[in-house]
Amino acid sequence: MNAPAPAVKLQPKDYATDQEVRWCPGCGDYAILKGVQKALADIGADPAKTVFVSGIGCAARFPYYVATYGFHTIHGRAPAIATGIKLANPELDVWIVSGDGDALSIGGNHLLHLLRRNVDVQFLLFNNEIYGLTKGQYSPTSKVGTRSPSTPLGSVDMPVSATQFALGAGARFVARGIDTQQKQLPTVLARAHAHRGASFVEIFQNCIVYNDGTFDNFTAKENTEANQLPLEHGKPMLFGPGKKKGLRIKPGNLELEVVTVGENGATEADVLVHDEKNRVQAMMLATLQPPAFPVAIGVLYCNPAATYEQATADQAKLVLARQPDGDMNKLLRKGHTWTVSA
Question: pLDDT by residue for the chain (342 residues), tens digit each?
Fold first, then answer.
């Protein structure tokens, strides 16, 4: 008897479809697609058991470009569709792709419940702080003062922080990535995939047509070192040239402050150590913005809990154990019935 042939390890190109990838030239979605395909290869994803679900928007083209199963659904409702898929077949590996408008405006309610229920899916939010598909209107994440066709005098809305929203909704895994960081992004996606439960990843993505350069203050090459804080569990939160700057709790209150190691008596021992299981710390990190602070990149929070589909399955098993001989026909005819005559 011949031994079974060894499984062939798929490469990133094997997760690409025969469809022409069409976004605006220079769009950050191209880089994210590349990062996702690399992550799928790194984790050895089985295309026959992988599903991508999207709503409406530029990001929603994703299912056409990934050689797995996929559903291009309706505006803001991808979390609801994905929840149904996961409940119907918990063995499937479900990824949701959404934009900041799709996820946090019309879809905010659905995203809230996906996260609080802890459905075992990966939710990727592409944040470019604008509505790109519908020609550049401001979105829930747009900065105050954003001029757009719907805010010609500048937006007066306080923007939503996607990461703070996820933490506030009870997400058990929250991370951030950047479209152009092709070494860091697949690693974060692999971590999200390994987590059992709802994994939320905000990906800062440049819209070259309608909001070009909105994240340059921390993503541009000349600003990366000074304005990004790469997070690593159990390691001091150091950043800047030579890793000489760090975060610590300001003496006398619960606010964060930036210190320079070796100046004003600050030592590396004063610098906070990143703890992925600390939700309060994660929320503090989610609020940081240049120029006063760096932007936290990587896994902010990871603290697994029971998943929604497992709890649902356990509940069904309990009911069946109580009534192993249940009969639907008898149930329908139980109690008061009546006959409708001609």
Answer: 455 555 789 999 999 999 999 999 999 999 999 999 999 999 999 999 999 999 999 999 999 999 999 999 999 999 999 999 999 999 999 999 999 999 999 999 999 999 999 999 999 999 999 999 999 999 999 999 999 999 999 999 999 999 999 999 999 999 999 999 999 999 999 999 999 999 999 999 999 999 999 999 999 999 999 999 999 999 999 999 999 999 999 988 889 999 999 998 899 999 999 999 999 999 999 999 999 999 999 999 999 999 999 999 999 899 888 887 878 888 888 888 778 887
Residue 129, phi-psi category: left (phi > 0), alpha (psi -120 to 50), beta (remainder) = left
Strand partners, 66: 16
Q: How far is CA 128 from CA 28, 137, 217, 328, 330, in A?
A: 9, 12, 14, 51, 56
Q: Residues for the chain: how many in total?
A: 342
- 187 three-class SS: helix
What are the residues whose beta carbons fall under 8 Å from the beta carbon of 58, sequence distance 6 or more? Answer: 23, 27, 29, 99, 126, 132, 133, 207
Q: Which residue segments constitute the domains of the chain, with CATH numbers given? A: 12-235+274-309 (3.40.50.970), 236-273 (no CATH)
DSSP class per residue in 44-96: T--GGGEEEEE-SSGGGGHHHHBSSEEEE--TT-HHHHHHHHHHH-TTSEEEE
- Please tell me whether residue 232 adopts helix, strand or coil conformation: coil
Q: Which of 22, 106, 17, 19 is nearest to 56 (CA)?
A: 106
Distance from C-alpha of 306 to C-alpha of 310, rounded to nearest angstrom? 7
- Identify the bridge partners of residue 151 per DSSP, sorted by sequence position: 148
Q: What share of the chain is helix, strand, coil (3-state, %, to 5)?
A: 35, 20, 45
Distance CA 162, CA 286 (A): 9
pTM: predicted TM-score of the whole model, two decimal places: 0.92
